[in-house]
Amino acid sequence: YTFTIVSYLIGVFIFATIVGQVGNVITNRNANRLEFERLLDGAKLYMRHHKVPHGMQRRVQRWYDYSWSRGRMQGGGDINSALGLLPDKLKTELALHVNLKTLKKVCI
Fold first, then answer.
1. Domain range holding 77?
2. 20 to 30 A Cα–Cα from 22, which one of 4, 29, 45, 96?
3. Rounded to two decimals, what is the model's pTM?
4. pLDDT the model gives residue 76
């Protein structure tokens, strides 16, 4: 009886550990997804506020989706660091769209 009880308790303990680890993996995945969605929403709000053309907004959103699907979406923080995750070409185009009025006023 003692051997059966001890082996049963060990089995329950191992099962509980496995179920707990699976729960942690799911929780972390959801937390990462929420962080990604927060970054994407911040980028959308920034682009909408600065009246970036819809084609450019779509390209940035597609880049975020591509990065998420490839598992490359890391980092975060404020909107500047979120947009800092963009590739250099997209950052340059976005900066041009946002600052074009100011750049046109500069005499060279």
1. 2-105
2. 4
3. 0.60
4. 47
